[in-house]
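Throughout this chapter, every protein is written as a compact record of paired, labelled lines. The reader may check this reading against the record printed directly beneath this paragraph:
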Amino acid sequence: MAHVSADARREQLIEAAVRVIAREGADRATTRKIAEEARAPLASLHYCFQNKENLLLAVFTQLSGEMPVEADPPEDENVSLGQVMERRMTRAMQWTVENPLRVRAMIEVTLWAERNDPELSVTFYEGFFKSSEADLRSSGTALPDEELQSLVRVGMSIVDGLSLQLLTNGDKERALRDTATACAMLKAFLDESERNTV
């Protein structure tokens, strides 16, 4: 049997964990099932990750790194906060539509963390929150911090909700239409808010 490097084995185990978690849920995704899915010895899983918790953290880290959280750079300098928000949400939902298995695994791991280690689930969201806030600030918005932070939370909530709907009904076209509707509503609100802060 050919030797598999620790890095390659880690990748195999993370990908196997994504499949098992998406199929069976994080609670039922045992280390044994994950090792079997990866066609790897159980001992190698424990060597690479020590325990299930570390593996689930690695899964979340991998998936959250794949999800596009930053908007594409603007083509011109006069981009509004609403346009940045629209690009962010649209990119996130396009990734969701293209990667439903990975989104299901990410949601499962987040819910698992909330049940077993609430501070860890807060940490998961905090990374998205900070990068989103920094990206929106780059639009030069005059919104006060409190309002901008509220906007970030609302945007994340919309993407989460639309993602759950997509996972339950499987209607990709509707998910993208609903995303466009949500973006239009947010843009209208933000255009008005920015006019009022000038």
Notes: The chain has a mean pLDDT of 88.
